[in-house]
Amino acid sequence: MAPKKKGTKEKGKKQGKGAKSGKQSHVLAYGDDTYWNNRYTANPVVFDWYQKYEGVKAFINMYIPKATRVLVIGCGNSTMSEEMVHDGYIEVVNIDISSVVLEFMVTKYKGVKEMSFSRMDVREMKNLKELTIDHVIDKGLFDSFMCGIDAPTNVQLMLTEVRRVMKPKGVYILVTYGDPRVRLPYLKTLEFQWEITLYVIPRPSSTKATEPSSRIFTNPVYVCEDNTLGPQFNLDDFDWHYVYVCTKELPTTKELPAKKGDAKGKGKELPTKKGDAKGKVKKK
Ligand SMILES: C[S@@+](CC[C@H](N)C(=O)[O-])C[C@H]1O[C@@H](n2cnc3c(N)ncnc32)[C@H](O)[C@@H]1O
């Protein structure tokens, strides 16, 4: 199960009115269209959250072959998908909840056959059939949910849908500011049998991005039992970004087609894979 609701809202963004009152509020809804439509209308500037394609290209190239069907969730007006196509990717399916940003993207990329854009809520991707997507990229959407109301529920719904549409052995690449203490409790669950590899990269324009480093950023980092990264990393340092590469290994029994007369087994989890290679995140 995902972590409990209490105290899960992350700092760093304005939370707005209505948080404590329990009243419906559009201001807090980072996972809903009204907030994002207003934002894209007020500020229609093309913007890439955290990293541009250049910053994550190495990981995308490492895990995602060019001739695959890639889903970009919460695409916004980022240029990442366009740059992926320039890099040789043949099918990039983009979804977002904001009709405003999608209208902009559809016009901008009219005629680019490698890219498609659809308005869809990642929590309910009705128009995407199960097991039809090879790989998924999320840059900023998980984080949006984490900064809004009902974060655990929304993240759970999102990850369930992501896994539903993904083929086995596909990867879900999450690019985030969230360090492993606050992201792994959502990813490293029995419910989601991901095989997780973590990379830590510098925030562009930070000194970490330019100063010499003995660490090769494209090497995975070892994650300790308590979801920290050991003394060499200050996880409270905002100049680190995190790339979680989550491979859909074993389907859970919930995800397997139900066998006839197997009502009892439904909902049970498959055993966790043994072994903990260097750089891999141990499952609990
Ligand atoms: C932080 S922005 C990231 C945009 C882009 N991926 C980037 O890296 O620049 C989050 C995006 O997720 C979209 N979004 C928010 N809630 C969503 C939902 N429930 N389903 C699909 N997209 C959503 C927003 O409209 C917004 O474009």
TrEMBL record:
Family: Belongs to the methyltransferase superfamily.
Pfam families per the UniProt record, alphabetical: Methyltransf_31 (PF13847)
Organism, as annotated: Sphagnum troendelagicum
Protein name per Swiss-Prot or TrEMBL: Methyltransferase domain-containing protein
Biased composition (Basic residues): 1-17
Ranges for region Disordered: 1-24, 256-284
Keyword terms: Methyltransferase, Transferase
Transmembrane residue ranges: none
Methyltransferase domain sequence ranges: 66-177
Keyword match Methyltransferase: yes
Keyword Methyltransferase belongs to the record: yes
